[in-house]
Amino acid sequence: MAGVRKPVVEVRRSQRRRRTVSAYRDGERVVVLIPDQFSRAEESEWVDRMLARLAAREGRLARSDAELLARATRLIKLYLAEHGTQAVPTSVRWVTNQNGRWGSCTPDDGTIRISHRVRDMPDWVIDYVLMHELAHLIVPSHNARFWSLVARYPKSERARGYLEGVAAASGTPLTD
Ligand SMILES: [Zn+2]
Predict the structure, then answer these.
(1) Which phi and psi (to 5°) does residue 82 adopt?
(2) Is residue 85 within 8 Å of residue 143, measured between CB atoms?
(3) By CB count within 10 A, which of 39, 107, 125, 158 is most buried?
(4) Distance from the CA of 60 to the center of ligand 1, in angstroms?
(5) Rounded to the nearest whole angstrom, what is the distance from the C-alpha of residue 147 to the centroid of ligand 1?
(6) How many Å apart are CA 142 and CA 51, to the nearest integer?
(7) pLDDT value at position 27?
(8) What is the mean pLDDT, run by run of 10 residues, along the chain of 176 residues?
(9) What is the distance in A from the centroid of ligand 1 to the CA of 166?
């Protein structure tokens, strides 16, 4: 992956610690707390382990339902603001029971579901899938007005191409 920087790590040794190791992020740095008696080898092994654990924890948080709602809120503000509450979903969540579609929405109750298959895709693709479902809250069918709303998101065409590529490669016909 390009652009992934290794964080600056500050190791703090504690005489009170016996075996427990913990780590937390402090701005750009990651602070790793280890027992004072650890050898250099143990220190380096534990730093790697804690960095991996921290990244996994943050990765899960980063693509949570709450984050999905935050994304939707930002997209509405940027592209659908004049539609007011009509474009605001009552719930947005990741689902695993939706293999034939990237996303779906129920305009009657305002709920949006996004397939877990989208979860590991780039941010701009997730935003497109969300934008698509948000536009359905305003226009349920795939008509010209619908596509003109979706096209307000600048990377729509590119994201559609990306999704078509993934669908073709997996041999699964996927719809939106
Ligand atoms: Zn659609």
Answers:
(1) -70, -10
(2) no
(3) 125
(4) 27
(5) 9
(6) 45
(7) 80
(8) 63 87 87 93 90 77 86 95 91 88 92 92 94 96 96 97 90 67
(9) 17
Token digits of residue 176: 């939106």
Task: For residue 130, report the distance from its CA to the centre of ligand 1, in Å.
Answer: 10
| The pLDDT of residue 26 | 86
61 alpha carbon – ligand 1 mean position (Å): 27
34-64: b or e for each residue (b if 16 or more CB lie within 10 Å)? Answer: bbeebeeeebeebbeebbeebeeeeeeeebe
Residue 31 CA: distances (Å) to CA of 17, 36, 50, 58, 144: 15, 15, 10, 15, 53
Element (DSSP H or E) covering residue 26: strand 22-26
Give the pair of three-digit tokens for residue 13: 């040794």
Distance from the alpha carbon of residue 8 to the mean position of ligand 1, in angstroms: 44
As a whole number of angstroms, the distance between CA 167 and CA 85 comes to 33
Angle between helices 65-79 and 123-138 (to 10 degrees): 70
Q: What is the pLDDT of residue 105?
A: 93
Type of residue at 150: V
